[in-house]
Each structure stands twice: as structure tokens, then as C-alpha cells.
Amino acid sequence: MRFYYTIFIGLLLSVSGYSQTVTELVMPKFTQGSNAGTTARVPFICRLKIDGLQINKTYRYFARFIDANSSATATGEGNFIAIKPATGEFKRFTSPNVAIATQCGDFTTDAAGTYIGWFACDAGTSATFTPGNNLFIRLSLNNGANGLTVTTRLNTTSPINVIDFGTTGTDGTALRSTPAAGGSAKNFILLYDDVAATRPVTATVTESDGLSITSAGYASFYVSDVENIDKVWGTIIPNNLTQGIQKIVQVGLDGVDVAGRTSSNGQWPASGGGTVSTISTNGGVSNVIVLDGNVVTLAPGAPVKLNQQITFNNPLISTYGDNDFDAAATASSGLTVAYASSNPSVATIVNGHFIHIVGAGTADITASQSGDDNYGAAADVIKQLTVNKADLTITAVDKFWRQGTAMPLLTVTYGGFKNNDDENSLNPKPQLTTTATASSPVGPYDINVNGAGSPNYNFIYIKGKLSVIGNKQSQTITFNALPTKTYGDADFNPGATASSTFAVYYTSSDLTVATIVNNTIHIVGPGTTTITAKQDGDQSTFDPASDVIQTLNVRKAPLQITAVDKTRLIGQPNPALTISYAGFVKNESSQDLLIPPTISTSADIGSPAGNYVITVKDATSNNYDITFVNGTLFILSLPPQQITFQSLPVMKYGDADFKPAASASSGLTVSYTSSNPAVATVIGDSIHITGAGTTVITAAQAGDLQSAPATPVDRTLTVLKGVLNIRPDNKSKNEGAENPAFTIMYTGFAKNEDASALTTLPTVTTMATTLSVAGSYPLIAQGATSNNYTIQYQNGVLTILPAQGDVQDNVNAYTSAPGLLQVNVYSVNDVKSAIQLFDVNGTRLVNTAVSLRKGFNTFRVAVGNIASGIYNLRVAGSGLMLKTKVVIH
Length: 889
Prior knowledge:
Layout: H1 3-10, E1 14-17, E2 20-26, E3 30-32, E4 44-51, E5 58-67, E6 79-83, E7 90-93, E8 105-108, E9 115-122, E10 134-141, E11 152-155, E12 160-163, E13 172-177, E14 188-192, E15 200-205, H2 220-225, E16 234-238, E17 247-251, E18 257-262, E19 267-269, E20 275-277, E21 289-291, E22 310-311, E23 317-319, E24 325-326, E25 330-331, E26 338-341, E27 347-350, E28 354-357, E29 361-368, E30 381-388, E31 390-396, E32 399-402, E33 412-415, E34 431-434, E35 443-450, E36 457-462, E37 464-469, E38 477-478, E39 485-486, E40 497-498, E41 505-508, E42 514-517, E43 520-523, E44 527-534, E45 548-555, E46 557-563, E47 566-569, E48 579-582, E49 598-601, E50 610-617, E51 624-629, E52 631-636, E53 643-644, E54 651-652, E55 663-664, E56 671-674, E57 680-683, E58 686-689, E59 693-700, E60 713-720, E61 722-728, E62 731-734, E63 744-747, E64 763-765, E65 775-782, E66 789-793, E67 796-801, E68 810-817, E69 820-827, E70 831-838, E71 844-852, E72 855-862, E73 869-877, E74 880-888
Parallel strand pairs: 3-12, 13-21, 23-30, 31-36, 32-37, 39-45, 46-51, 47-52, 54-60, 61-66, 62-67
Antiparallel strand pairs: 1-2, 2-4, 4-9, 5-8, 5-10, 6-7, 6-9, 10-11, 10-12, 13-16, 14-15, 14-17, 17-18, 19-20, 22-25, 24-28, 26-29, 27-28, 29-30, 31-33, 34-35, 35-37, 38-40, 41-44, 42-43, 44-45, 46-48, 49-50, 50-52, 53-55, 56-59, 57-58, 59-60, 61-63, 64-65, 65-67, 68-69, 69-72, 70-71, 70-73, ...
Protein name: MBG domain-containing protein
Domain MBG: 392-467, 559-633, 724-799
Pfam family, one: MBG_2
């Protein structure tokens, strides 16, 4: 096979770039892509011929994808895979550049300025690779003289359609081989959808190619089951192949075919046994089609084929006149079994697999299966068919012979002829004899019948009666033609009458068609029988009447077999297919059919929504005229569902996890996502608050086999800051000492947090210094910040004890404001006292009663009416006397 010659002649596609041309020798129809974020890459391989270059020159180059909108100078998109012409070395570049020798490929032209070689790349992550787009290959070349810029751009013109892995008809399915016997690393695998190998569907490389693509966004199956595994290859095929992959070819680096394998029905030997179809696939990237590399060898020579066996168990015993029947042999491959008869005078094969009885006897029926692209021929199985003779009843018709007249003509009736046979089918015909003669006295005499011959019938002879009668009165029978009846009709009176008025009785020549019950005709089965009306006369008045016969035709009853319409949702297995029957009579059912009907549909679990025919066929019956009515399998799109999601309550940082309580009309579980994890995250079916702020909570329901995905519903969640109280711890020191280290007490932290959760820690300040006198001073906290807390401050107290400490009473005083004297008293005990002010003459100017508490006490005494000067201050109480001088100004 030289597939590229065919393509070259039929698809001579060249595009000029200056005086250069590029010709497509191997150009696959499809490549993988999935818009932005491609993470399921597979290689794309093509083979091109470039003419019009400088002779014997080495060019730097790279190959990438473009689309119809790409500019004339665009470098293309996707990743370039360089293939060394001589060694087959593979290198992959995400940003190729001819200015850097290690960032591009190179090739050398021949004496005609031509280069033929393999080119490879894979998908990028831009919208260029949106499924459905058509792409092309652009070759970017330098000047062939170590130039550092692209000087020539050559484009291919056959569109390359982008597909991605998925389960719909417009998607693609992963396909790979186990290690292929006869495969060679760095050879190329071309897959075609026609036996003629017109244009590849896709192309790939046999591993190991030396590349490491584990972190390059390649398809999961490729990374785990193809990459760097010797003689394994993998690719993507479109799901809409109506004929499947029909040819797989291994081609060497030199472009010469190594070997190919054909499957005209799109079925290929599967890993694990049997075959797998590549027609109308729907596996996506998860349900990978895996071919058996030990059978799909791609090695030169005759292909390896699977074995198959024929099972032919049914006993082949029939009777002349039986309906055609199915030989019912099967092949383990599932392929159709063919039949042949060794004796066409006994049986022939009709409609492929039905045995048609021709005559009694024996014949060898040979079941054979010649194999196909995947299976070798099965061993023939031979079974002997025995066709027994049918029973034919020959009845001598009763006659009357009046004395003195000529003997009546003796006749017979037949019951049981098959296949439209009649008396002329017998050789010889039956002979009739009787012992009665012209001189025989009145009375009955036997009419004997025998001597008939046929290879297809066993004869049952029934004697008749020849009644020799005297000269009595004659009588006649009136017997009108019988109406055509249908199998299942009720018994009926034939309606014959005798002129003697004597009762008429009846006989039937074929008891398989009709019998006589209580002098009425009882329908037994379809066919034709002769009904004879008789009247035997009596002893004295009437001679027997001449028999009168009428033909009774019984047609088959109409039976309608209907495939019952069924309905299911897309993606579900087919429901059980059922059949309804209309027309059974005599309390019969489908159990009374010779061959039961079969029922089937072409739809499977991967079929898209639509209407599919349910076919019912193959039933046969001796008693029914069967009409088949096909049904319809309605595959419906998944019903929609809606999400009910009420507005969310305003929450506060530190609140416990809560359930959003969205629900889906389908009853399926709703899932949630948060747009801002810094505010809230989702844990199971609950919202976990992580910070103050706002976030959008999205409720979603992805659907299942019963329901389509619901439209997501967004709700805004507002989380308020928590309240954090900050208060400096109370502290104390002795007068003149350095301020102690200040500490802070926090109230309101949530989630077991502490001060480390603050963005900025608070600071504590006070106006007290080493020079401050004994007394109480506020400690002020400020400056803390937090994203999650509203901060409230409370002051603490710094207590400055007298220099001697807290074991001795002490007093100091000073004018804190005009006309106001501040008196600070440290008391060791609680005591009632008085603040007294004396001038230098000892005159008491102030006497204010106070109650001292243990510790610091501060009092403000009005002295506005006292002149400026130096005064003596005294605090006196029980066991207490403190004195100091004070300046009033």
C-alpha cells in the first residue's frame, strides 16, 4: 500500500511561499483541542514535501497550527515537536525560535532543493483550539544560511478539524493499543476510515519516542498507558465515524509502509478477548478503546486472526410439509453462520439461514463461518437432517349400487397433502377394489383402497362402503357450497338436507383441517378439506342418497405482532423490549407459535436523543397469518431541574458553620461554592465563615441519569466583623520608678484566636513618667487594626505609689487649676479624715471632711477665695496625721 501516492494524486495541495511549495503526503483530518486550558493532548503527525528551497542547505524551522484568521506573519499556536530526519530524535518546544539552534528543528535539502519529512505538534490553550474549528499547519523557515529570523512561511490547505474527548457525536474517544507485535519505536501509526486509505482520520507515533510529557498536559490515558511503553501507541478518533476505523498502517521514518491491518466492518480485536467497535463511539477519555497488540500486530506478513467456533446443537428432525425453520447455529465471534445442504432434493437453504424442506429423506447440513478481517475461518460443523414422510389419508368414498344398474364409479378423497401436492403427485395412484358383483345380494360390501406410491408420504388407507340396494325410493341431498372460514371460527352447521327429510351426516377428508362434532363442522386448522354429506336411507322406504361433497377452505387467522413503544432518558440503558399480540384464538398464546418473534433496536446506551425503530420479526405459525408492526423507542433529553435558594442571613465573624438549605426540584443533593474563600468556604453541605466581608455562594446541581444540570443560583453572603474589646491591664509602680511593662486584656476573640490574628497590634500609652507624683493615671490602648473585628477600647489604670511603697500613708497636693487644689492621699487603711489648710499664722482656712479608702484617694478642694502664697496642708483622722506645704497661685 502506498497511501500517500493516492493522496498526492487526488489531493495535490500546494501553497506558495515565494517560489517554494509544500505538498501534503500524509495529512490527518482531525486533531485534539479543547479551547483554553487544554489538558488532554495527543500528538498530531503529518508528512510533507517541500520544493523550491536552496539545494543542499540546512534550514532551521518549526511547525505550528494556524487558522483562517491568522495573519500572514503569525508564528502559529500550539507546541512544536521536532523530528530529526536521520535519527528520529524527538524534541518538544513550547516557544520555538529559529534564532536559537536548540529551540527549533532543522533539515537539509537534497540536490533538487527538496525535503520530505515528518512534522509534529500538539494543541495549545487558546480559543484557536475550540472544538469545531478548522486548522492548518504553518512551516516557518529561516534562510538556510544560519539566519536568525523567519524568512519563509508555508501553509498547508487541507482543513484539520479540532475535536475534544467527550461522549457526544461531535466529540472524540481515546484509542490505544497494547504493545504491538511487529511495532517499532518512533514509527508512525496512521488510522483510516476507509479500506482504500484515502486520507488518515488521525496519526500518532509508536512509543517510546524519547519525550517526557508527564507534565505537558497530555491526556490521562496517554500518560499512564502509552507514554514511554515500548511498542504502544495512542490517539483520538471522532465519535461520528459511521464506518469506524477500517485500516491501521505502520509507517517508518523513511515514509515506507511497514505493514497494515484492515477491518472492513470497523471491528478490531480487543485487549482481553473478542472485538470492539470503532463505529459511532462515545467513550471520551475515560472509556478508552484498547486494541490487542498481539493480534493487531502491524507486522509484515499474514495478519494474526482470532479463533472462533460454531455451536450447532439443535436436533434437525422435520416432516415433509413443515414450514421453513432456522438452523440456529451460532459462531462465538458473533458473525453470521452460513449453511449448505448436501441433498437439494431433501432440503435447500433459503434467506441465508432457513432450511426449506423439499422432500423426505436425509441431508447433511453444513454450518460454516469463513471469518473476516479479525477472525479466522471456523471449523465446519455438520449435522444430519432427517425429514420424515408426511401422513396422507386416502379414504374410499361410500357408494350405493342399485341392483340391476351399472356399478358406480369408485372414488377416493385425500387428507394431508402438503406443499400444494394433489393426486397427480402420486405415482402410482391408489387402486380401488370391491367383492360386490352384479349378482350380489342387497347388503354392504367393503371398498378397499391401496397401492398408492410417493417418496414423501406414509399412506393411511380407510375403507369405504359399497351398499347394494334394492328397488326402494330414491332420495337426493341438497348441499350448498360452504363459506370460507378462518382458523378460530366457531363450530357451524353445514346445512345439507335430504329429500327424504332424513337427517344428513358428514365426514371430513382432512382431520387436521376440520372434524365433525355433534354433526357440526369443527375447525382444527388452516387448509382445505372435503366435507361429504351422507344419508344412508332406511330398510324399507328410501335408498341411500348419493353423497354430495363440498370443499371447505379454512384460511389462517390474522395475528398482529406489535413491538410495544418504549421511552427512556438519554444515557440510560434500554428498557426491556416487549411484544403485544392481537388475534390469538382458541385461548392460544405466543407459546403456540412455531418460531417465536425476535425484537431488537439499534439504539444503545450512547445513542443521542431521538426516535429509534424497535423491530419485531421472524415469528412463524401454521395457523396464523402474521403481520409485524414495529414500535418506537423514544430517547428523551433529560428533564430540567431548578434550584430554590433563599437569601442568606447576615452573619458575623465567629458564627458557627451553617447550612444554606438550597434544594433542587429533582430531589438531588445541591452542592455549593464560594467566590471568596477569604470570607467563607464550603465544608460538605455547610458554609464555614473564614473572615468578614462579602462572598457569592453558588448553589449548583450537576444532574444525573434522570435530570439535566440545573442553572446555578447565586446568593450574596455578608459577614460582619466581630466585636473585640481591648483594655490595658491595671498596673502599679512606686513614685520615681520606671513605668512597668504594659499588658493588654482582650475580650471577644472568636475561633480560639488571639492577638496574633490582628493586622496591627495595639499600643498602650500613659502620661505618667518617672517624675509623676503618686496617684492614678489612665492607661490608653490604641492603634490596633483587624479585617475581622470592630475594636472597642477601655482604659486601664496605672497606680503610682508613694516612694516608700504601699505600707505608709502619704500625701501630696498642688494647684491643678486656678482656684482648685488637688490633694492626693495614699492611705494604708480605710479611715474618716479631714483635709485642713492653715496659713503661716496657724489660722485654719479649710476644713473638709473626707473618707479615705485604702489606697489612692484624690480630692479637689476649692481655694479660689484664698490669696496666693505658701500654706500648710494637713490630713487628720483617727490614727492619721499627714502634713505638707502647698503653693496656691
